[in-house]
């Protein structure tokens, strides 16, 4: 396991339902990276905003366009890049988290908890499989936005063990207190790093997003809080600090056993 994991969080506004404009925008944003990082994290639905029009925007061509651009970024910066997009498979639409390596390898996680208050469940299919990816010996669990409200789904267990969780979001400013409270709670209860990336700006539905992307330590303290401004934010996760904390305060030894039922 590599002692430290270097992460770049991209907190920005998005162009509403404009894939080309968003890809071009992120292309410009990423040029600000001046040093080597291991992982670049983009927001939820970074190519369109949180749109309920996948039937108009998602296609095999859009799938490939976004994936190709992510592969180019990963290769250019020699870093894994991740974030979610609307994705179509056999005329079914998913809010799909994509994990793309510099070698062009792709893994994915389909958002399991669809935000019914925004009618996401009427336009997208829910995922049913969790995902843990490996990066330089680190185990990272991948989640999307509304998943954050469901601690059982995100629970670190002997069979779903990880060092950090990645949460990408379009979380509204009106519930920013929930965003900050829940990300810290997930870190504390799982004794895991939380890397959370949220967008900023106002979308076409006049929903404001306040950002507050963050890196939270396993003890619940903030390693990084991006606040409400746009930009690239950098942090390093420490395996030594995580392991030392877990050994000193081993709450996992008293955890309740449970079986997840779909």
Structure description:
The chain is α/β, with parallel strands linked by helices and 262 residues long. The protein has one domain: Carbon-nitrogen hydrolase (Nitrilase/N-carbamoyl-D-aminoacid amidohydrolase), CATH 3.60.110. Helices cover 24% and strands 30% of the residues. It contains 6 helices and 14 strands. It has helices at residues 19-30, 54-57, 60-77, 151-154, 176-190, 239-248; strands at residues 4-11, 39-41, 80-89, 92-100, 106-110, 132-135, 138-144, 164-169, 193-198, 200-202, 208-210, 214-216, 222-225, 231-238. A 6-stranded mixed beta sheet has the order 5-4-3-2-1-14. The chain has a 6-stranded mixed beta sheet with strand order 6-7-8-9-12-13, covered by helices on one side. Strands 10-11 form a two-stranded antiparallel sheet. A hairpin with a 5-residue loop joins β4 (92-100) and β5 (106-110). The longest helix is centred in the N-terminal third of the chain and has 18 residues, at 60-77. The protein is globular and about 50 Å long. It starts with a strand and ends in a 14-residue tail after the last helix. The mean pLDDT is 97.
């Amino acid at each position: 396991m590599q002692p430290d994991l270097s992460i770049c969080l991209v907190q920005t506004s998005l162009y509403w339902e404009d894939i080309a404009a968003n890809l071009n925008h992120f292309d410009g944003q990423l040029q600000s990276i001046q040093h080597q990082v291991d992982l670049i994290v983009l927001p939820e639905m970074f190519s369109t905003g949180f749109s309920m029009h996948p039937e108009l925007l998602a296609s095999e061509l859009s799938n490939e366009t976004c994936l190709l651009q992510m592969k180019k970024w990963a290769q250019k910066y020699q870093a894994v890049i991740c974030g979610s997009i609307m994705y179509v498979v056999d005329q079914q639409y998913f809010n799909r988290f994509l994990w793309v390596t510099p070698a062009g390898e792709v893994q994915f996680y389909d958002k399991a908890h669809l935000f019914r208050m925004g009618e996401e469940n009427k336009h997208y299919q829910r995922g049913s499989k969790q995902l843990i990816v490996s990066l330089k010996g680190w185990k990272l669990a991948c989640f999307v936005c509304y998943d954050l409200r469901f601690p059982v789904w995100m629970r670190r267990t002997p069979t779903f063990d990880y060092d950090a969780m990645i949460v990408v979001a379009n979380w509204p400013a009106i519930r920013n207190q929930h965003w900050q409270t829940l990300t810290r709670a997930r870190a504390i209860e799982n004794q895991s790093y939380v890397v959370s990336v949220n967008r900023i700006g106002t979308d076409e539905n006049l929903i404001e997003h306040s950002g507050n992307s963050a890196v939270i330590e396993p003890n619940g303290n903030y390693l990084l809080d991006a606040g409400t401004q746009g930009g690239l934010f950098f942090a390093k996760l420490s395996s030594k600090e995580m392991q030392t904390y877990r050994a000193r305060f081993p709450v996992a030894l008293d955890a309740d056993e449970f079986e997840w039922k779909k």
